[in-house]
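Minutes, project check-in

Agenda point 3 was the complex the collaborators sent over. CS summarized: four entities, 1308 residues total, and the question is how they sit relative to each other. Sequences were read into the notes so everyone works from the same version.
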Amino acid sequence: MNLDFFKNNNISVDLAIEAHDIVRGQLETEIPGAVVDRHNYENATVTVVKIVEPQAAQMMGKPIGTYITIDAPAIRDNNRVAQKEVAEILAAQLSSLFNLPENANVLLVGLGNWQATPDSLGPRVVDQTIVTRHLYKYAPEELQGGMRSVSALAPGVLGITGIETAEIIKGVVEKIQPDLIVAIDALAAGSVERIGSTIQLADTGVSPGSGIGNKRTGINKETMGVKTIAIGVPTVVHAAVIAQVTSEHFLEKLQQNPMFSQIYNNLSPDYAQDVINSVLAPFAGNLMVTPKEIDDLILSTSKIIAGGVSMALHPAINAEQYSMYLN
Amino acid sequence: MNLDFFKNNNISVDLAIEAHDIVRGQLETEIPGAVVDRHNYENATVTVVKIVEPQAAQMMGKPIGTYITIDAPAIRDNNRVAQKEVAEILAAQLSSLFNLPENANVLLVGLGNWQATPDSLGPRVVDQTIVTRHLYKYAPEELQGGMRSVSALAPGVLGITGIETAEIIKGVVEKIQPDLIVAIDALAAGSVERIGSTIQLADTGVSPGSGIGNKRTGINKETMGVKTIAIGVPTVVHAAVIAQVTSEHFLEKLQQNPMFSQIYNNLSPDYAQDVINSVLAPFAGNLMVTPKEIDDLILSTSKIIAGGVSMALHPAINAEQYSMYLN
Amino acid sequence: MNLDFFKNNNISVDLAIEAHDIVRGQLETEIPGAVVDRHNYENATVTVVKIVEPQAAQMMGKPIGTYITIDAPAIRDNNRVAQKEVAEILAAQLSSLFNLPENANVLLVGLGNWQATPDSLGPRVVDQTIVTRHLYKYAPEELQGGMRSVSALAPGVLGITGIETAEIIKGVVEKIQPDLIVAIDALAAGSVERIGSTIQLADTGVSPGSGIGNKRTGINKETMGVKTIAIGVPTVVHAAVIAQVTSEHFLEKLQQNPMFSQIYNNLSPDYAQDVINSVLAPFAGNLMVTPKEIDDLILSTSKIIAGGVSMALHPAINAEQYSMYLN
Amino acid sequence: MNLDFFKNNNISVDLAIEAHDIVRGQLETEIPGAVVDRHNYENATVTVVKIVEPQAAQMMGKPIGTYITIDAPAIRDNNRVAQKEVAEILAAQLSSLFNLPENANVLLVGLGNWQATPDSLGPRVVDQTIVTRHLYKYAPEELQGGMRSVSALAPGVLGITGIETAEIIKGVVEKIQPDLIVAIDALAAGSVERIGSTIQLADTGVSPGSGIGNKRTGINKETMGVKTIAIGVPTVVHAAVIAQVTSEHFLEKLQQNPMFSQIYNNLSPDYAQDVINSVLAPFAGNLMVTPKEIDDLILSTSKIIAGGVSMALHPAINAEQYSMYLN
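CS then shared the predicted structure for the full assembly.
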């Protein structure tokens, strides 16, 4: 698979680690200007991709910044020990991306459509998060020390509100002037094994056109005027990707035969795309591949994210309380 | 019952018609500066209370403006003919409160908490309304003639967002600059027979402290800078009101006996309130009286409101289409 | 308050402890044939009422049997430590009511209407319970030692199915022949302070006419042919009870005055009831008093019940796992 | 595609018309013992496949019986005129499959899992259907003339109840002894264009192993002792089918080249299956392809089915009332 396939099908590559691996595969060498680091945990692997040079950004189609991927297939199996560990890793990694005083003011934004299950992750996280902004000024000073002022918003999607999501957020940001935005969104992955098992953190915010709902405007430092960290979990794979990957696997072996390339070269260059279009009509880009248990997966994943975010933003919430909170 | 009871119990009198009737009853004469007009329909009665003088406003605890009450007990019985008629009346009355060109830009705001059934009316209406703002600029001119540009927002409540609802709305209003705001909210009534059977329209917007969720800041022309019409339906009666009304009914007959007034006058003036407090502890102001079928009632009422609002805002939606839409 | 009020208003006294206290109050002495025992815990009080004589059963309007009440106001405040303790107490008390081999076959029944929030407790518990019957025969023997074969059913209510709930359960019971039925139901209490703070266990099953939805047929050993334990939590108080209690509190002080009894005796005996009827029309028996946060309360209570039931039925689930499960 | 692919991947071919077309394609001639008839309507095409000979049944993997397919892509576009027409066609076709006196007793069964959106069609229909069995015996005779006695059950799925769905239904059937069972289920299709646009009626009931949730036991005349009609709507396509169809389309053109067959014949016969397995791991058979708007699609489809079923079972419900009901 290469990035052109995604562009041609109007599908965003939401995970930086996938964009990296695709480009790395095409280059057959390390990408200049991108730094990759990996750590293993009991139930998870953390990969940090830093895009440091404009050239790497351009090749990968992602802005310069830090992208942290937590891979933890165990959380998909309702393994609560793993879910707890992953929430803790998420809290630590999220903390590493910001540097804020304890009295900072943070706005959580739950992106996505609560009426479409696979896209409802963000609103679900917001529903499960402890907000404190309205209590904060009345709280005793010692509590203020360990709790940040947190507010939360689920702005909906264009089809429900008629308003660009970024406009709604920007309007609220101008009113409450947070020091940091943390935006949570459901993502589309390039392979089914990432569904419900991968969490991405990015200090670049949300790019225009990414996510399941194809947000048109980005939500990031440039558009919001405030540092924005995005947290995303793939909940679907576009059906076109399944079709494409199948074709590629299929060709792989065939191409080992020298005669085949002759045949293949006679095909129209649009042939593969034509096949995909015909298989997926009349839904085209709106067909998603999800596990049958998507409702469960959204529920358990939203709890992990809500737990991790709460721990990172409120240092006074200790692991014990958090465990109670998480589950 | 008098308005002091509500003040003492920190309960708002959401319906102007009830405030009117209470004050009218206390005065035992028409309220100077308030004009009342009534029309009967097959399945509904429409009462228009106009508060025209500051004195009347002060006595009734409501700002100067027009308050339209549609009383239609039949809509509570799943009578679809009545529901259709009431939606049409709502559309006509709503239209009478604004005077806007067909290309005006309207923002619907669904107030209330979608996680608390009796308070979820506003968000439900928003979920069922046709929004057009994002399509409007691409629509053919002839369609633009009959459809207004409508956007919609369900801002949530302070306990979920940590942000004053009025702040969120104001932020969005500054971005999209609507010509009119229509805010939908679940209300508390002073008698159970109004639950699910009364719709109030007010060109004064939403007053501070009204509604089930006790919104702190008003949503009206003053706070928003834009004309604001409120549509409300009572979905609860505060339990304290039930207790109070019971006491009053009880005393009514007793007081016919001259000896009784002697006994009664010996009671502490706080006695009635003490009874109410003890009966309703430990929930106090958070106890609501609702019909067992509150979920159904919210669903059917939200459809009527969504239907009526759509007809009023989009003149091109005719009755036939609307009937399909409504049900 | 006396039991006649409930009969006249067609309201069941769902909690045996309330029936006991009402009769005890009327008798002004211990009820012959009823034994009461009380234990205090950190966050809860457990009261066991044993009705051992037919006379006591007749006076209290409850069948002979054991009724365990767990009172724990702390669980209503989202106090997770208290919620955990109460789930453990529930597990222990539930275990005390049955005496079953570890390979016994248990059917959970979630009574009530999932479309009416205050009545949805039973179906919610069933949705959160670990069922094992379908896995049981394939499970390794050592696991079978600590897990019982558990199945679960949410039969709905008459208005949704057109079938008596007891008929549905009986049909399933005849097919799967459980050794024990545990039926979970939302109850109506006689005072608001019990809402969401009291759990009742009864080895007499569910009586005809009890519960919010007024089940017509009992679900008990007689009707099912299988030992049946009922677990109930009050989620509402009938509005008529609020009106009645208010009247009674009101009269209490008045009656201290000797002149008053003269006045009072001149009132029609139906006077109090007439007041209640007029205050609650047109909803009458269908008006419920609930806290505004009833949705939250149902959610957190259902988790406690599901946790306690799982611990009692599956001895292999230890406290640690259970804590993860509960929250 | 041939039927072996489905067998090898443990996927049922839920639509008889698809089984027919696959076998017809393989045979390259009409299937002996199967009769096909087609009618066109404004917004729909109705195809009746009658399997009359055991040989046809064996070839198509479907029992002898009548299978009616209503194809109506327009209902997917929220076209309410088309939805109304399709509900009327459904009512007429459903009526054609049974021959019952007006006082017959009908049990609706909503199969599937209400906690998994694409599988929740059956329970949703049941929630929206008018049940009358509990009212029937009290109804005036003239009403009984036009309304049948209808009851409804949503038995859940094995993973939620621990009980075979067929056992629950059979237990209830033995209690209430209906004259007819109508079972509604979400299906899997062989092509995405059928999602939300096709309705199948079958007088053979539900076959073992069909539906999204892979019901193990059939629900039909043999298992229930009562005539059983199944109504199904495809809401998903198995991801494996997408992969397979893509491969086939891909090969189609390649195979026009004589050299290619040589290469292809060198591939292991398991090659295609290996590709599919690797693309879809780790979810395998649990990956479904659905439109992003699956929640909307389930909602609108369930209304059409509920409307059509109500019209067929209650002749007294006329089109006007039904239109109100449907929408």
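Noted in discussion: The CA atoms of residues 80 and 327 of chain C lie 8 Å apart.
Follow-up: revisit at the next meeting once the mutant set is ready.
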